[in-house]
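Protocol step 4 of 5: obtain the predicted structure for the target chain.
Materials: sequence only (see below). No template structures provided, no constraints applied. The aim of this step is simply to have a reference model before the mutagenesis design in step 5. Sequence pasted as it appears in the construct record:
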Amino acid sequence: MNKEQTLEDLYAYGDKRSPTNLKKGIGHFNVFQLDDFMGENSEPLLFNRRIYFKVTLIIGKTRVHYADKVIDIEKQALVFSNPQIPYSWESMSDKQSGVFCVFTESFFQQFGILSEYPVFQPNGNPVYNLSEEQAKYFQQIFQKMFTEINSDYIYKYDVLKNIVIEVLHSAMKLQPDELFVNHQSTNGSERISSLFMELLERQFPIENVNHQIELRSASTYANRLNIHINHLNRVLKETLQQTTSDIIANRILKEAKILLIHTNWNISQIGFCLGFDEISNFSNFFKKHIGVSPTNFRKQMIV
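Step 4 output (structure tokens):
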């Protein structure tokens, strides 16, 4: 099976975003001009969304989608995203620019807990529309990031942590936007369905015996998508003609079969990876849906 993709792997392309600031033991931080990733000749962002947090200052009319919610950015805004909550955004104007920084949770080790900040919580507000004066203020902060990361100061990463914290607290002092628009249309349902499937698939494939999936219940997915569980159930029944629990169970079973056939892990290890703390629970789950125990399934498939 393929090994887990790392930041070093992603930077191996050797383009202008070389990881000069990538050091072992301190996590990872970098800052970019948004312009380099936009337009006809734009380059893809070479990061795995699973492993980083992101703060973006967007200049220009934009629309950000979070599950069944839409936030319109008329002029400029700060957008916060984390590895757990998927989102998408679409340009509403040809004139757009901005800056963004990315960082891993380990970058803030012993410095703070990122998930505790409201801007990074599932029920928090991830977008702050800004006045022109506020936008200039945050542009200056991001410029400090560029200056610091390009410096030779030995403690520059400590300084960068403080600059990121300054962005977080300055944003939270602003009155949060309440420009959410609920969409009960087919498009809204399709968007929720798509984001649900993205959250589900993001947990796979399982690459090692220490990797345990986190999302196993319908309520957990609803919480991550910031919608009511009944609404999630209705949407998936409408768009995929299956219940939320059945979709989750089928994907877990698919991964279980792969691990049983293509690895030499024992049944207990596979059950743990799939979220079962007891081997009996995994065996009963598997036999209920497949008709045979995991052990017998493996014997039948491996000859």
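Step 4 remarks: Residues 1-7, 9-18, 40-50, 177-186 have pLDDT under 50 and may be disordered. The longest strand covers residues 53-59.
Proceed to step 5.
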